[in-house]
Amino acid sequence: MQIQNPHDRIFKETFSNVDVAKDFITYFLPPSVHETIDVASIQPQKDSFATENRP
Known about the structure:
This protein has about 55 residues and is mostly helical. It is built from 3 helices and no strands. About 45% of the residues lie in helices and about 0% in strands. It is globular and about 40 Å long.
């Protein structure tokens, strides 16, 4: 059986860990992006979604 969307699966599994997500944002994203995100407010969400309301 072939795994469908293997990259999506590893991304979801990795970033479902809140500490990993916070560290990634803090240490790997450029300051211009990092400064727009309140990492202290990051909480796990049951559903996956993206909104059209982007700056």
